[in-house]
Design goal:
483 residues, mainly beta, Immunoglobulin-like, Rossmann fold, 8-stranded mixed β-sheet, 36% strand
């Protein structure tokens, strides 16, 4: 809505003057529903005729035959004069099945014109021209390309179609390769072979191990996940925490010890316990810990004591396993590597950008790293936006412009991580700019043709003001001349 319902022509004019075209697809259905809701808004019972709506469009929108158009008199005014357009209608990347470090890129180019088209499709990887292909398209035909020789470590790709046509917006498309940095895991333990082995098997992770006595001589905030084994400091790190067999501390209330606790139930539908069977798991001893209010109990003993609980506390994710895994047969069970992979998948950051390929106007969530102090989002053009990192996701919706954006996480004035994301405006339907007829409602034909003249009340006093001023000036001149 550019302006609320009003008869103030000046306010309406100012609203129209301030309107700017967007890059997203048009939602005609919502526009017609809005127009129908305005029926009779100028006064109850004053209008008995259907609300007349003028729809200026080339008809390139979805099927509206299911729309209830009762009470609307839709007058469709066709715009557009031709179909001279070629566009990139699809661009997607995936890892090479034979080598996950290499990526393949798929692109589709379609010719919507009524004549043959020739062009060049160029590929830029991280801002450098990498490859070009010749495009030859028959009328209405599409051509597909696969690029397999992308450079190692590439992050972002821009495909661009050379030439000029009637719709330049779909001559460029963008893709972001899902190349994530390894998750840095710190294991604080006197020595636990089971933990070291299973953490070392996790994909895309780097594991560092230190003794508890050396913990206070390092900076734990630089790690994404910290695993404490029979040790827990009073000051928790900024990253996610997995506490195994924690000692008494101010973080948790211990109420003694459990001897041979039997597992009564576990949350099978929770992602942390998905595909995990605990029926044969036996524990010799466990801490009787009261689960705090921010945590959810996922594994429960017969007396109701938690054997695993997790949740978010002060902006960090925390999972607690209140027993020594060496005092159980869990490391020998087939479920152990699956269980640890699920737990670490919950704790590790899933990438700072929740979505990487979006449409103009879409909102995205940015997850700051534990050690980040600020997050800077750089647009394709225009100023960047800086947000303070406060330990919770940052919402960003200033995505009107198609192109490649970059999210930088900074600490102490240095960039510690930079990842791109793409905003694409390419759409098969929007790229087809040929004018076409439309219908609205259950068989309701829309009147098509040029807009007829509509009688309106026009204010003419603004045109009379100069004449009145001229008459007053003449009278003043004539009076002074005679005197």
């Amino acid at each position: 809505m550019l302006a609320p319902t009003t008869e103030d022509r000046q306010a309406i004019g100012q609203a129209l003057d301030s309107a700017e075209p967007g890059f997203g697809a048009a939602d005609i259905q919502q526009a017609l529903i809005l127009a129908r809701s305005l029926e009779g808004s100028s006064g109850a019972g004053r209008r008995s005729a259907p609300t007349r709506v003028y729809l200026f469009s080339d008809g390139a929108f979805g099927d509206l035959s299911g729309l209830d158009a009762e009470g609307l008199d839709v007058r469709f005014v066709s715009v557009g004069v031709g179909a001279d357009n070629q566009g990139i209608t699809a661009l997607a990347a995936r890892p090479d099945p034979s080598n996950a470090r290499h990526f393949q890129l798929f692109a589709r180019v379609r010719n919507y014109a009524d004549s043959e088209a020739r062009s060049t499709l160029s590929l830029q990887v991280d801002g450098n021209l990498t490859e070009s292909r010749q495009v030859e398209l028959a009328p209405g035909a599409a051509q597909e390309f696969v690029f397999s020789d992308l450079p190692l470590g590439a992050k972002a790709v821009e495909a661009r179609l050379a030439g000029t046509d009637s719709f330049a917006l779909d001559n460029a498309a963008y893709a972001v390769l899902d190349v994530r940095r390894p998750t840095e895991v710190l294991l604080v333990s006197q020595g636990n072979l089971f933990l070291e082995k299973v953490l070392g098997l996790l994909p895309n992770s780097e594991v560092f191990r230190i003794q508890p006595r050396r913990y206070f001589s390092i900076d734990p905030d630089r790690y994404d996940v910290v695993v404490f084994d029979a040790f827990l400091p009073e000051a928790m790190p900024r990253g996610s925490v997995l506490a195994i067999n924690p000692p008494e501390s101010s973080h948790f209330i211990l109420e003694g010890e459990l001897r041979r606790p039997r597992i009564r139930r576990w949350e099978r539908d929770d992602p942390m316990l998905q595909f995990v069977d605990l029926r044969d798991v036996a524990v010799a001893r466990a801490q009787r810990i009261v689960a705090p209010g921010w945590a959810k109990t996922l594994i429960e003993a017969e007396d109701g004591s938690p054997l695993l609980f997790a949740g978010e506390n002060e902006g960090r994710r925390v999972a607690v396993l209140p027993f020594d895994i060496r005092q159980s047969n869990l490391p020998l069970a087939a479920a152990f590597p699956i269980f640890m992979a699920n737990v670490m998948g919950y704790l590790e950051p899933g990438g700072q950008v929740a979505l990487r390929d979006l449409r103009p106007g879409d909102a995205l969530s940015v997850a700051p790293l534990p050690q980040a102090e600020e997050v800077v989002i750089r647009r394709p053009s225009g100023p960047s936006r800086t947000f303070r990192a406060e330990g919770r996701p940052i919402s960003f919706d200033e995505t009107r412009e198609p192109g490649l954006y970059a999210v930088s996480q900074r600490a102490a004035g240095q960039t510690i991580l930079e990842e791109p994301f793409a905003i694409n405006a390419s759409d098969e339907m929007e790229s087809d700019i040929r004018p076409r007829a439309v219908s609205v409602g259950a068989g309701l034909a829309v009147q098509t043709g040029p807009a007829e003249l509509v009688p309106v009340n026009r204010e003419i006093w603004t045109w009379l003001v100069p004449a009145a001023l001229a008459l007053l000036l003449f009278e003043w001149f004539w009076f002074h001349r005679r005197s």
